[in-house]
Amino acid sequence: MNNEINEQELENLLRGLAPAAASPALVQRVDDELKLDMSWLSTSRPKPRQQPRWLMSAGWAAMGAAAAFAVMSYLPTQNAQGGAAALATAPATIREWDDEHGNSLHRGRSLNDDKLALVVSRELGTWVDPRYSSQMTVDISSRQQLLQPVSFR
Amino acid sequence: MEATFDWKSTFDHLAPQLVLYARQLVDSKADAEDVVQQAFVRWWRRFPEGDSSHIPLLYAAVRTIALDQRRSDHRRVNREAKSEIAVAGENAPAFDPKPEQKETAAIVDKALQTLPEDQREVITLKLWGDLTFNEIAAMTGSSINTIAGRYRYALQALHKKLGHLRADLLGESHSPAINILPFSPTTEAMS
After folding, report:
1. Which chain A residues touch B36 with a CB distance below 8 Å?
2. Are B155 and A34 inside 8 Å of each other by CB?
3. For the whole model, what pTM was predicted?
4. Are B151 and A3 in contact (CB under 8 A)?
5. Which has more confidence, A148 or A127?
6. Do B85 and B23 form a contact (C-beta atoms < 8 A)?
7. Considering only CB atoms, which chain B residues are within 8 Å of A18?
8. Size of interface A-B (CB pairs under 8 A)
């Protein structure tokens, strides 16, 4: 008969041995440290308030809306002032004529070139609605070539 | 009302295995208990629910703290060499055996101490810590094959040391039959 212990028996034997219990002093030390921890936590850290998550998002959204409203209500006032200045200094319709090549008409070598002039125009239109104290300014720029009716040659 | 988790029952359940494991890594039971205290408090702060899935992390904390402590051990050893009080409890038993297991526990404890540390560590974590090879591999940073190999080698080494002590280790309850006859019939028949 095999008098030796086999590996399975050995494993079971080892598992069957209970490790020695921790000393009461260790339990006490851990207890003290955790109690200290808990007391510190309870005095220094406020309890997290139970509030719905959407409240935070809604708060931010409301603040954003208020900021946007403030900006929007400020901007028209500024435009109205600028518009008034523009209104005072400029006629309702401004038509400017300009030459691309230094206040003179462009002359090319060919006959056709001589007859072409580059016209750059800019039109500013301002409308004021007294009912709502609103003001609308339109800036229309154009750049076109015009065929001259006469030759400058 | 804020839920409070009972750390004591968790600690009572885990502390013996943790101390046994720490004892494989540090020199004395007192050191091992220091390590376990630090590791458990650190772990409990991190996981106050005492979730069992985080237990491998607790063993990992024990390991880290024990290895750190061992690194700074030279000065302490020199200091304690002069103090007789400090070495009290160094030879405290690692196991808490039933009366009939006392001799076995002493033999096993002695045999365990002869194993290389890495094998002792694996066998402690596996048999008493109930960790899987995978968990042990993760916490020690070794491959699972290495861990399984260490476990196998450790068992073989223990088998060599303890195998011939079958009767002593297993006791009468594990013997195939109590032989009350002055001779063994099988031996007689074979001879």
Report:
1. 22, 26
2. no
3. 0.56
4. no
5. A127
6. no
7. 16, 95-97
8. 104
Which residues, 6+ apart, have CB-to-CB distance to B170 below 8 Å? A5, A9, A13
Q: Which two tokens stand for residue A54?
A: 């959407």
A41-48 long-range contacts, CB within 8 A, separation 24+ = A47/B2
A14 and B CB contact within 8 Å: yes
Q: How many residues does chain B have?
A: 191
Q: Per-residue pLDDT tens for B39-79?
A: 999 998 888 877 788 899 999 999 999 999 888 766 566 55
* pLDDT, average across residues A78-97: 44
Within A41-151, strands assigned E span 116-129, 134-147
Q: What b/e sequence results for A19-36 when a residue is b if at least 16 CB atoms lie within 10 Å of its CB, and e otherwise? A: bbebbeebbebbeebbee
Higher pLDDT, B6 or B191: B6
Bin A151: left if φ > 0, else alpha if -120 < ψ < 50, else beta: beta
Measure the CA–CA gap between A99 and B161, rounded to whole angstroms.
Answer: 109
Place of tokens 């006392």: B102
Question: How far is residue A97's CA from residue A113's CA, in Å, rounded to a whole number?
Answer: 19
B101 at interface of A, judged by CB pairs closer than 8 A: yes
Q: Do A148 and A119 contact (CB within 8 A), yes or no? A: no
Distance, first Cα to last Cα, chain A: 134
d(CA B87, CA B83): 7
Instruction: Name the residue among B112, B140, B155 with its Cα closest to residue B23.
Output: B112
Measured CA to CA in angstroms, residue A66 lies from A80, B45, B185 at distances of 22, 43, 102
- Residue B55 CB partners (closer than 8 Å, separation 6+): B14, B131
C-beta neighbour count of B19 within 10 angstroms? 24
Whether B167 contacts chain A with CB within 8 A: yes
